[in-house]
């Protein structure tokens, strides 16, 4: 059977439960997360939060899709038309998450800005659109299939 890539929209705060359910059903899935460290009552707590709240990625055939819908956690399944392009964008986002602490989810940037590739620094090779926010330079990495983006603060010297 032919397997299709999907963005799986789940019920609020159910991303990790759905990931565990899919793993138990032997369905390939991916939940990109970032680590958030907080001080709570004199101790340090480490939280893993989804980069895109409410979404995870899965590759499944028709029978597996029906099985996933029976989990009672799925709200919507969005087929990914160009999986290679989306995977490239997600790798860019995950790379940005690992190399920078100054990140935030933003609405997708228009393509009217200048498209750049970061030439040096910890995020060398990252591609996106340049924006200026309050005198600081940032690169916006789009994930077009979800209509969202990640904004990464960069040094002007690092941008090509």
Structure description:
With 160 residues, the protein is of the alpha+beta class. The strands form 3 sheets. Strands 7-11-10-9-8 form a 5-stranded antiparallel β-sheet. Strands 2-5-1-6 form a 4-stranded antiparallel β-sheet, with helices on one face. The chain has a two-stranded antiparallel ribbon with strand order 3-4. It is globular and about 50 Å long. It has 2 domains: 4-80, NusG, N-terminal domain (Alpha-Beta Plaits), CATH 3.30.70; 84-158, no CATH class. The chain has helices at 15-24, 62-69, 83-99, and strands spanning 4-10, 28-30, 33-40, 43-50, 55-60, 74-79, 103-107, 115-117, 127-133, 136-143, 148-154. The model has no long low-confidence stretch (mean pLDDT 87).
Q: Unreliable runs, pLDDT <50, ≥5 residues?
A: none
Number of E-type strands: 11
Report the β-strand fraction as a percent range: 35-45%
Largest sheet: spatial strand order = 7-11-10-9-8
How would you describe the shape? Answer: globular
CATH class category label of the largest domain: Alpha Beta
- Rounded mean pLDDT is 87
Query: Span from first to last CA?
Result: 44 Å
**What's the Cα radius of gyration?**
17 Å
Q: Architecture of the largest domain, CATH level 2?
A: 2-Layer Sandwich
**DSSP helical segment count:** 3
């Amino acid at each position: 059977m032919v397997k299709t890539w999907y963005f799986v929209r789940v019920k609020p705060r159910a991303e990790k439960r759905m990931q565990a359910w899919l793993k138990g059903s032997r369905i390939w899935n991916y939940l990109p997360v970032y680590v958030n460290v907080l001080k709570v009552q004199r101790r340090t707590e480490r939280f893993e939060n989804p980069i895109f709240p409410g979404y995870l990625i899965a590759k499944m055939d028709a029978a597996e899709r029906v099985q996933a819908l029976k989990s009672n956690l799925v709200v919507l399944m969005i087929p990914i038309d160009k999986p290679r392009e989306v995977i490239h964008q997600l790798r860019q986002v995950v790379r940005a998450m690992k190399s920078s602490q100054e990140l935030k989810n933003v609405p997708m940037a228009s393509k009217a800005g200048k498209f750049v590739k970061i030439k040096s620094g910890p995020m060398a090779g990252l591609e996106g659109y340049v924006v200026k926010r309050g005198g600081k330079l940032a690169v916006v990495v789009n994930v077009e299939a979800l209509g969202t983006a990640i904004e990464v603060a960069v040094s002007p010297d690092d941008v090509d």
